[in-house]
Design goal:
It contains 13 helices and 15 strands. By secondary structure, the chain is α/β, with parallel strands linked by helices. It has two domains: 136 residues, Aspartate Aminotransferase, domain 1 (Alpha-Beta Complex); 238 residues, Type I PLP-dependent aspartate aminotransferase-like (Major domain) (Aspartate Aminotransferase, domain 2, 3-Layer(aba) Sandwich). The longest helix has 35 residues. The protein starts with a strand and ends in an 8-residue tail after the last helix.
């Protein structure tokens, strides 16, 4: 039995997106910047996708959508596209639970002399809007706060945070990669100036993303070239991949009401399986949470009865059982590092190596949830018993 529960990492391309990609590769393969019939046909596919992605987030005009290679490039374009407009270093505000696609550009800017304020979060991973208000300085030019945190599932109060930024005439960006297609996004209601999305999180094809740029907001491009994407992102567009993105976005919009409710039910069902288990502690905010996201850390009780068991251990064990999940911390060069997200939430360095994430998708069933819970409980029991042969345990 194979069960994939890592939809926050990537989603399987849906058949409709694959079919559209194949169709465009065969029939609309021209360069969309060319003026002849082949180029015009390709441009139609490109602009259709732009309309579809704009509709997903309720952008007033499709011209506010700039296609990129993915969410990482969209985040970098937002941060650096603002920063490059200033001849002298200014002030940037982020949170301490940002995706690395925001945290690393912010670190680079800091090395160039920028002031960077990293807002703290509470134990559930949420920002206090009053902290944002207090952090604003006369030279603050950009605020970037992640919408839905990929590791612990917490949603930030983006509408409230963006309102604070707007009152101070400060640009506001949010990484909406994990939220798009899973919860309704209305950029008008949110009041954001910039928002990043990615195709392969919504059953599109890897290699396409987009940055919403509110009309009137100016960015400097990261690359010089032919001036495609309204002179913001040069380079011939990957039209087939983008067309697949558009189809995925349109279908996500249509299916979202029913699918979001279904995912929430499955999410809560999985959490409920472990409500009396002393070995797994839920992480993130249970109320303000992505609908498809479940995350835990191994408890101190479990750690005291085992040796060198981390989140990565559980990923490997579940993989042997045919179940795919993620560890809540990164592995670099074979060395497991504490999760910076869990550290930011107040977990110690050892606990921050013991996080796991299970993320659900359109192919996830109740049977998958129940089987996964049973398998994980058996693995926990076996790991404890292997370390303590005379111990009797259960969840």
């Amino acid at each position: 039995m194979q069960i994939y529960l890592d939809y926050s990492a990537t989603t399987p391309p849906r058949p409709e997106a694959i079919a559209k990609m194949q169709e465009v590769m065969v029939e609309q393969w021209g360069n969309p910047s060319s003026l002849h019939a082949w180029g015009e046909s390709s441009a139609i596919a490109l602009e259709t996708a732009r309309l579809q992605v704009a509709s997903l987030i309720n952008a007033v005009t499709s011209e506010s959508i700039v296609f990129t290679s993915g969410g990482t490039e969209a985040d970098n374009l937002a941060i650096m596209g603002v920063a490059r407009q200033y001849a002298t270093p200014q002030h940037l505000i982020i949170s301490n639970v940002e995706h690395s696609a925001v945290a690393q550009p912010a670190k680079f800017l800091e090395q160039q002399g920028w002031q960077v304020t990293s807002l703290k979060v509470n134990r559930q991973g949420r920002i206090n809007p009053l902290d944002l208000q207090a952090a604003i300085q006369p030279n603050t030019v950009l605020i970037s706060i992640i919408y839905g945190q990929s590791e612990i599932g917490t949603l930030q109060p983006i509408e409230q945070l963006a309102s604070i930024a707007r009152r101070h005439n400060i640009l506001f960006h949010t990484d909406g990669v994990q939220v798009a297609g899973r919860l309704p996004i209305d950029v008008q209601q949110l009041g954001v100036d910039l928002l990043s999305v990615s195709a392969h999180k919504i059953y599109g094809v890897q290699g396409a993303g987009a940055l919403y740029i509110k009309p009137g907001v100016n960015l400097l491009p990261l690359m010089a070239g032919g001036g495609q994407e309204n002179k913001i992102r040069s380079g011939t567009q990957a039209v087939a991949t983008i067309a697949a993105f558009g189809v995925a976005a349109e279908l996500a919009s249509q299916e979202m009401p029913a699918e979001t409710a279904r995912l929430r039910e499955l999410r809560d069902r999985l959490f409920d399986h472990f409500v009396d288990c002393p070995y797994l502690i839920p992480t993130g905010d249970r109320l303000y949470r992505l609908p498809h996201h479940v995350s835990f850390v191994l408890s101190d009780l479990f750690a005291s009865q085992t040796k060198n068991v981390t989140g990565k251990t559980l990923v490997r064990e579940l993989n042997l059982a045919g179940i795919g999940i993620s560890a809540g911390s990164a592995c670099n060069s074979g060395k497991l590092n504490p999760s910076p997200i869990l550290l930011a939430m107040g977990y110690d360095a050892l606990a921050a190596k013991r996080g796991i994430r299970l993320t659900l998708g359109k192919d996830t069933t109740k049977a998958d949830i129940d089987w996964t819970a049973m398998a994980l409980k058996q693995i926990l029991k076996r790991l404890i018993c292997a370390a303590n042969p005379l111990t009797t345990v259960g969840c």
